[in-house]
Specification:
The structure is a homodimer. The first copy, chain A, is of the alpha/beta class. Chain A is built from 15 helices and 9 strands. The interface between A and B is large, with 39 and 39 residues.
Amino acid sequence: MNDFTYYNPTKIEFGKGKEKNIGNYIKNYGYESVLLVYGTGSIKKSSLYNDTISSLKEAGLEYEELSGIVSNPLISKVRDGVKVAKEKKLQAVLGVGGGSVADSVKAIAAGAKYDGDVWDFFIQKAEIKEALPVFTVMTLAATASEMNGNAVITNEQTQQKLSIGTVLVNPVLSVINPELMTTVSKDYLAYSAVDVIAHSIEVYFTATQHPKFNSRIVESIIKTIMETTEILIKNPNDYEARGEFAWAATQALNGLAPSGTKGGVFPNHLIEHTLSALYNVPHGAGLSVVIPAWMKWYKEQNISQFERFAKEIFSVNGADAGIKELESWFCKIGSPVTLDQAGIPKNEIDNMSKNATQTSKLWGLEKVYNEQTISEILQKA
Amino acid sequence: MNDFTYYNPTKIEFGKGKEKNIGNYIKNYGYESVLLVYGTGSIKKSSLYNDTISSLKEAGLEYEELSGIVSNPLISKVRDGVKVAKEKKLQAVLGVGGGSVADSVKAIAAGAKYDGDVWDFFIQKAEIKEALPVFTVMTLAATASEMNGNAVITNEQTQQKLSIGTVLVNPVLSVINPELMTTVSKDYLAYSAVDVIAHSIEVYFTATQHPKFNSRIVESIIKTIMETTEILIKNPNDYEARGEFAWAATQALNGLAPSGTKGGVFPNHLIEHTLSALYNVPHGAGLSVVIPAWMKWYKEQNISQFERFAKEIFSVNGADAGIKELESWFCKIGSPVTLDQAGIPKNEIDNMSKNATQTSKLWGLEKVYNEQTISEILQKA
């Protein structure tokens, strides 16, 4: 078992109607003003926007708004948020939305306490030393962004999709109300399921040391996600399934699953970031294209874990059978498994490989994931 | 899924030699003095005592010592600690030892910030409002005390064994170094395994709502504990097994497993507290006596979960078969499964039932667990 530090101070308020207390939650920490960040208006279609504003007002909080966060969130918008937070001297940031909103508020929180350009953190030109306190109300389960310090942001000028990761931008408190997630479309439910499975299997397959306890935790998450996704496709209003999906998704990337493992990396995310940065495909759709291809390419390097996966998740024997089952399951829930299906031109693989190799260098993975190998993987997609 | 709040701000430093940094860990939080609490001298048999003192000195921390914490720790000793902490105006408490030491430092931490008698918290005469920061270095894995706000203390005068539970006494930071746990005797290894399994199954069997995700997490913990216990009985120095055992034990009672469940209670602990309070049997040994008896008595009330347990843990069919397998496994690892084996006089069941019913009233469980029913359960032991 590898040495590790586990520290996740985020408080989770899980359950029905808890978003209506968000103003008081923030106030109870002693903050008096907040930047409210949300997406392109879906929170105004339900009562969520009004409920949030009412809650902030009732708690006596001053607030500013920043709307228009898009899927694959942009650094330009983050910079807007940083500007407002600085100008108005806001004491906290609150994201109401999905993973993109959560990613954006974390970047804003860090940028608001930094004199330079917030993109510096993403290109590792500067280190995050402090940040405004982050709060989130989640409307989509997938990224575990509500309970970790990770944020992925796209720079539309440089065509880079890069990440930061520090406990300093872990949300202080996040609300997970499964009811808020029932309006998610079946497509996005499927993409979310793929994303959670991706978070679960990256370290599971790539770690050079992976205690069995961790394997069991990961398998618990995957089984739960698969089971509840199938229920939710049939009945989006199944609260129990929605709740289990959300909480399992949180556990997939809040630090528990990889604790004690060694050498795990995120190759599927690495390659997918290029697909969504260049072709604006949903992250989960990009992942379901990359994962089976990567698994076929990688399996021999950790064959026993691939065999374990096949047996534990699908009750089949052999790595190939397990990969096939997962690919079929992605198809079953309606997520693409080839570049074609995702509308990505296969003749641009060279360009994709070049782009992904840039990230690979930043992540220190170019020895294994370079233009040649990424191209090999994408050829299988 | 039931509404819940999940909040566990304890930082875990897991790995080899990390106890040698404990002085700096404490200092990094800004504290300058500490009460060092330990047991009856086993930390002086290894280098742990000297390493701890060196680390505190190197970090420039002032410290006082309180030794002599025993298994089933006593309120008299806690009162001693509170007195020293108050008199010397110490800023933090550090427990180096097993669950009893951790329990004691939490009680001391709460008592040091309270004008009345610390026992008031246990009899629910007063509520904990603040506490000194708690640090622990664990030498035994079982109680998850390193990552929760629970403490169980015995009042030797009133013959009560009662508990407190608040995140205010969660350790700020705990060191888990599996190497420090290799000197644990095979008996205590077995008792620890029983204790972790007990923590895992109480809510698993008694909750009126228990999401499948939670069942899977619990089963992951139990499988890991059973597998690693068997390895460690043969080879106490197996670091991997020791590490997985320790981390699984932490997860069993750090708040994750019951999150989202409803109505779970701790009847086996309730009854066992009486056995260890009256007869000073090790907690785990008392539990392995109570658990099979309680399972036989209770199974019909949640038969599907008992059937699930049998299948998932032992690959056998039927509640009875599962109970029998667990009982056999307790025997196999050398933990008693009858009152006789534990050296507890069966003719005193009436007295035990009376004593346990007192706790039952405090826990609000006397409707189900009263003199009559507890007597019925103990008759099966």
